[in-house]
Amino acid sequence: MKKQDVERELLSQLLRSGAGIAANLSEAVYGSRRRDFFSNPRIALKEYSGTHARPKLLRATGSLTETESSSVNQDSTEIPKMLISINKPTQQAQPDSY
């Protein structure tokens, strides 16, 4: 596989993951079912767990500069903190049945 193809695929995966996180959080807020409110933030956190390695791979391929990589890494450490802070109250408030 060419380096350019690898970079394109990693960037595509990163964008899809980011969009997936945003979509799940939006569905949690605007979902029509109570179950969405409780389950979608957890799904967003799982989506993040598959995302956080990609910026490191992009840096290794030379697709990101050191400055860009540092900025992305800083942002990517804040995202799970926010997702966890969203998940904690929903887990505590989640009813046994929907």
How many DSSP E strands? 0
User: What portion of residues belong to β-strands?
Assistant: under 5%
Work out the radius of gyration: 16 Å
Given as residue ranges, the uncertain stretches (5+ residues, pLDDT < 50) are none
For the largest beta-sheet, the strand count, sense and barrel status come to:
none
Order of helices and strands: HHHH
Percentage of residues in helical conformation: over 70%
Distance between the termini: 47 Å
**Assembly type:** single chain
Shape: elongated
Structural class: mainly alpha
Average predicted confidence as pLDDT: 83
- Count of separate DSSP helical elements: 4
What does this structure look like?
- There is one protein chain.
- The chain is mostly helical and 98 residues long.
- The protein is 82% helix and 0% strand.
- It has helices at 3-30, 34-49, 54-61, 66-93.
Descriptive keywords:
4 helices
Could you outline the blueprint of secondary structure elements for this entry?
Blueprint: H1 3-30, H2 34-49, H3 54-61, H4 66-93
Helix pairs in contact: 1-2, 1-3, 2-4, 3-4
What can be said about this structure in brief?
It is built from 4 helices and no strands. By secondary structure, it is mainly α. Helix 1 (3-30) runs antiparallel to helix 2 (34-49), helix 1 (3-30) runs antiparallel to helix 3 and helix 2 (34-49) runs antiparallel to helix 4.
